[in-house]
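FIELD: query
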Amino acid sequence: MTKSLGLSPMRMGRQWALGALLVLACAGNALAEENQRDPYEGFNRSMFAVNEAIDKYAAKPVAQVYDAAVPLPVKAGVGNFFGNVGDLWIGVNSALQGKFADAGVDVGRLLINSTLGIFGLFDVASELGLEKHEEDFGQTLAVWGVQDGGYLFWPFIGPRTVRDTAGFGVDSFVDPVWRVQPVPVRNSMVPLRFVDVRASLLPADKIVEEAALDKYAYIRDAYLQRRRNQIFDGRPPRLDD
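FIELD: result
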């Protein structure tokens, strides 16, 4: 069908992406005065509803089975392994943000856990007092002065800002899990990590359901607050009223 129309899938993808950005820009102009933090609220709520359906009928049930069936030491090992894989990129982002001492700790964690921790299955570095950091390219962009660009919600990916969506793209591009060979091993690791992360969030589900009159707004506000704390390393400046 695309061949008969003279459009390649790549070209159609670029046109779709451009169209989506134009829609977001128009929606943002129309709604910016209503909520400066969430100028794309109509789009976001639609994507939130899609994500809720996917989570209800697919992601959450799989995560619940995984959580119930897999022994705790195995789940801990899986989480430690993927956490160790990310420590190198965390160290790079720490350095890009000028936090060179933290970057040294991140690299040290990688070396210790990859050796003494048996490829990261055991978090020996934490036992030795080397703190685990959480840095990504979205935070690096924020430290460099890039504004958030407004809140967005994406299916599977979850809450982000425009800036953090771009940062997520860079994080995904350099993610070593996506470069694992052979391909069948990679295709097993990617969903395993997703299920492990979703299972780790199961205890929070009940809290959100009970505390939130508007689940979408609750998650949005919690994300933006947590993100601001991450960017300022837990010491955000006071906001003007």
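FIELD: remark
Strands lie at 151-154, 158-161.
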